[in-house]
Amino acid sequence: MQIRRRVAGLALAASLAVMGATIGRNFTTASGLRSNLQIMGVCPSGIGKENGRKCASLLMTDAKLSKRLAGEEFTSPS
Q1: How many helices (H) and strands (E) does the chain have?
Q2: Most exposed: 16, 43, 51, 72, by fewest CB within 10 Å?
Q3: Alpha-carbon span 56 to 42, nearest angstrom
Q4: Cα–Cα distance list, 12 to 25, 29, 30, 43, 49 (Å)
Q5: 34, 28 in Cβ contact below 8 A?
């Protein structure tokens, strides 16, 4: 995957999203609450938002956790 430059914040956001999706149903509080992490990467075109999403998707698919992926249909209007 080719991007113009790497953005550490987007990589961190993608890794947090993968972690949240991975452990979300395995850990609960005493009252039954689970992790609910929602992340949105907002930056100009060509920075690498799509790269983090694709890497997270590949990782989840390889780990046989693709059923926990969501939000693939959300994109910018441009």
Answers
A1: 2, 0
A2: 72
A3: 17
A4: 21, 25, 29, 14, 11
A5: yes
Q: How far apart are CA 41 and CA 53, in angstroms?
A: 10
On the question of pLDDT at 1 being above 80, the answer is: no
Torsion angle, CA of 77/37/13/25, rounded to 10 degrees? -120
Alpha-carbon distance of 66 to 74, in angstroms, equals 17
Give me the mean pLDDT over the 1-15 stretch: 75
pLDDT digits (tens, 9 = 90+) for 15-53: 998 888 888 778 888 998 887 788 888 888 878 788 888
